[in-house]
Write a structure and sequence with these properties.
Elements: H1 3-7, H2 10-14, H3 20-32, H4 35-55, H5 67-77, H6 91-115, H7 123-135, E1 140-145, E2 151-157, E3 162-168, E4 177-184, E5 192-197, E6 205-208, E7 213-221, E8 234-238
Antiparallel strand pairs: 1-2, 2-3, 3-6, 4-5, 4-7, 7-8
Helix pairs in contact: 5-6, 6-7
Length: about 240
């Protein structure tokens, strides 16, 4: 097994997506290579497992129907796209397995949205998903300045039905308050809470959305509100 062949096995090995016999062969190949390559393999496996371990501490709900299929199809279209990963695995396999992991990660983001958690998506999930959104042919980036300074930058892909919201230079909410992100309106004419942020997230917030929905950001009590109680400090239509 050469260098590419061994590194090609990082994701399936780390995700336990191999048979016992395949695992034995991979481990034998790992033991037979030079120490530098073995260390690269071990580090890559550790990164994948750490990412997946991060997910187990977050309660998730079922992802929107068809999300995994859309993500996998998008990653197939993105084969060969540039990446800033310091250690590159062969493109086809790297992106295929990243897609499978990303689908799980995005599901966590969907759970955060539906559950109205006071948190944000795990960093690796957000950055992986943001990269996928940016690579889509239908990707759109919008921004809106906030009255107290800073900007929210919104990346969407209608094909993926995913949105990533970044907070750039935004000041934390005042004591006893939060930023609450809304999507809607629903069929009942109501806005649906996407997330309640008691602090400004360092990573993009990722969520599922329906094209043509509106997105709004309001200032609410720290515990959040069932419906907006103040005028939006930012709002836009997500085509």
């Amino acid at each position: 097994m050469n260098t590419d062949d061994l590194l090609d096995q990082v994701y399936p090995y780390a995700l336990d997506a191999v048979s016992d016999e395949q695992r034995r062969r991979i481990e034998q190949a790992r033991d037979a290579v030079d120490p530098e390559l073995a260390a690269r393999f071990d580090a890559a496996v550790a990164r994948v497992r750490d990412t997946m371990a991060d997910l187990t501490v977050v309660d998730s709900l079922a992802p929107p129907a068809g999300l995994e299929a859309r993500v996998l199809a998008a990653l197939d279209r993105s084969v060969g796209a540039k990446t800033d990963e310091p250690q590159k695995l062969p493109s086809k396999t790297r992106w295929r397995w990243l897609a499978a992991a990303a689908a799980v990660l995005v599901a966590i983001g969907a759970g955060v949205v539906a559950g109205n958690r006071h948190t944000e998506s795990p960093p690796s999930s957000a950055l992986t998903t943001l990269r996928m959104i940016e690579e889509q042919r239908d990707a759109v980036t919008r921004s809106s300045g906030l009255p107290n300074g800073g900007t929210i930058v919104v990346h969407t892909s209608p094909a993926l039905e995913l949105v990533a919201v970044s907070f750039e230079g935004v000041q934390p909410p005042a004591a006893g308050h939060s930023y609450q992100l809304w999507m809607g309106p629903t069929d009942e004419g109501l806005m649906q809470s996407a997330v309640v942020l008691v602090q400004v997230p360092r990573e993009p917030f990722v969520a599922h959305y329906i094209p043509s929905q509106k997105m709004a950001l309001t200032v609410e009590p720290a515990s959040g509100s069932p419906q907006p109680t103040t005028e939006p400090i930012a709002q836009m239509t997500l085509d």
